[in-house]
UniProtKB/TrEMBL annotation:
PANTHER family named in the record: HEXOKINASE, HEXOKINASE TYPE 1-RELATED
Protein name: Phosphotransferase
Domain annotation Hexokinase N-terminal: ranges: 43-242
Domain Hexokinase C-terminal span(s) in chain numbering: 248-486
GO BP: any one term: glucose metabolic process
């Protein structure tokens, strides 16, 4: 709905909850609220710690580039620069029916993708919500759940012809999008290096997740052939190129963040000795969320970022991701608010316990706060009163909105640094290139793309305008299917597993 500037209304949040909002006229009084002056003094303090100057950004880009190079040279680096065994770009003529299973940060999605060639496709899909318990329980149980959802999808969503094809003993090729860092020696296997995005399922790190999933497929006797194990960024790279051949890089800005791009095998020194044609190209899953992990030498971390890190299930890890991705931005803002509560600056005399639990302040609230179109910031009144049972003044609401802008802008500008590092390493700046981007932050956070573009101009000057991000095709559905198609073709040509 479009909010009017005054009056009442409601809005449905991404979580499915409905938020009622209404104009208030006497909201300033009775409680000892912070004054406008106090709030703007505080804002200046936060501006100085959350703002990234162009000079600082350029320093980050330089360090980032060195890290990318190191990851290509040696195995086992913090930013692992994972060779994906996705060889080169799609021709655009890939065809056929494929299943795609996407185990992302929040949902499990099953898709049937009909790839039709000429950049066309059709997709049917179902989504299943993952519980916190499933993310932390035993890994094999998680894969059993994936297989169970796949079974439900096959029996309920596939056409009778599809089902009869299956009864003939035909196995449908499946692309499994598993968006966590995995080292690969071929496309249909992958050892999980570490969980990210708050996952922690036991008995999975250090194991071949493709083999684990195959075990679950056998348990449920599913007529499916796990053809390719892919990362969401790699899928996004291939799907975006399928419809827009100018695509050179793909990024995900969602619960987690990461990028993939196409590299010349000759420029991946750690692959020497594997007998792969040096003239070939291979997609690299950078796993850039790990940039500056453990050492924390390059990124501008505030004390709130340090708390987010130290209280996470993986302290020290995913240092870049923790400043950028949707999983953490709301928590950073909540920690600032809690500090101001403790200092007696905000919500004096009010009961603030609802704001005190970790991760209750969703990143979706930052999006809503930034896009509130009303003079009185009614949306922000609604968020604080409805979810946290606290009253706010206009000065406080303006402060919260400005704080959201600082945190959101920093995330986008850091993202620009990552993109700039790849672009500059590959020499794409003058000819320009398209960057396919996907994920809730990129798609839903107001101004995220514009802020990335501004950041690229701050880093590169006017030439930064040659790098344009655009909303990517569905990498984990369509991309995964196209990669399965490319893999099957290479198999038929006898090129599997290496050229
Ligand atoms: C994972 C990546 C993934 C990214 C976006 C990160 O936490 O490590 O593999 O691509 O999230 O989903």
């Amino acid at each position: 709905m479009v909010l009017s500037r005054r009056g009442s209304g409601s809005v449905t949040l991404p979580t499915g909850q409905t938020l009622a909002i209404h104009t208030r006229t006497h909201d300033e009084e009775d409680l000892p609220h912070a004054t406008k002056k106090t709030m703007s003094d505080h804002l200046r303090r936060f501006e100085s710690i959350f703002t990234l100057t162009p000079q600082r950004m350029r320093m980050i880009v330089e360090a980032f580039k060195e890290t990318l190079e190191l990851g290509l040279e040696q195995s086992g680096q913090i930013v692992p620069m994972i060779p994906t065994f996705v060889f080169g770009w799609p021709t655009g003529q890939e065809k056929g029916d494929y299943l795609a299973l996407d185990l992302g940060g929040t949902n499990l999605r099953v898709c049937l993708v009909t790839v039709q060639g000429d950049g066309k496709f059709e997709i049917t899909q179902s989504k299943y919500r993952l519980t916190e318990d499933q993310k932390q329980d035993d890994g094999q149980k998680l894969f059993d759940f994936c297989a169970e959802c796949l079974q439900t999808f096959i029996s309920t969503s596939m056409s009778p012809e599809g089902s009869s094809q299956l009864q003939d003993g035909h196995k449908i090729p499946l692309g499994f999008t598993f968006s966590y860092p995995c080292t690969q020696e071929r496309i249909d296997h992958g050892i999980l290096i570490r969980w990210t995005k708050g996952f922690g399922a036991d008995n999975t790190e250090g194991h071949d997740v493709a083999a684990m999933f195959r075990k679950s497929l056998e348990k449920y006797q599913l007529p499916v052939d796990l053809t390719a194990l892919i990362n969401d960024t790699t899928g996004t790279l291939i799907a975006s190129h399928y419809v827009n051949p100018k695509t050179r890089v793909a990024c995900i800005f969602g619960t987690g963040c990461n990028a993939a791009y196409m590299e010349d095998v000759a420029d991946i020194p750690k692959m020497k000795g594997l007998n792969i044609d040096p003239k070939a190209q291979m997609a690299i899953n950078c796993e850039w969320g790990a940039f500056d992990s453990f050492e924390h030498e390059h990124l501008p971390r505030t004390k709130y970022d340090t708390i987010v890190d130290e209280t996470s299930n993986k302290p020290g890890e995913q240092a870049f991701e923790k400043l950028i991705s949707g999983r953490y931005l709301g928590e950073i803002l909540r920690l600032v608010i809690c500090e101001l509560i403790d200092e007696g600056i905000l919500f004096l005399g009010q009961n603030t316990y609802k704001l005190e639990s970790p991760y209750v302040f969703e990143t979706a609230f930052l999006s809503l706060m930034e896009s509130d179109p009303t003079d009185e910031l009614l949306m922000i009144i609604g968020i604080f009163s409805h979810f946290f049972a606290v009253e706010t003044t206009l000065a406080e609401r303006q402060f919260f909105r400005a704080l959201a802008q600082l945190i959101g802008r920093r995330a986008a500008r850091l993202s620009a640094c990552g993109i700039a590092a790849i672009v500059s390493k590959k020499g794409y700046l003058d000819e320009g290139c398209s960057v396919g981007a996907d994920g809730s932050l990129y798609n839903k956070y107001p101004g995220f793309a514009e802020r990335i573009h501004e950041g690229l101009v701050d880093i590169f000057g006017e030439r930064g305008r040659n790098i344009v991000t655009h909303h990517a095709e569905d990498g984990s559905g369509v991309g995964s299917a196209i990669i399965a198609a490319m893999t099957n073709k290479r198999r038929e040509q006898g090129l599997y597993p290496n050229l």
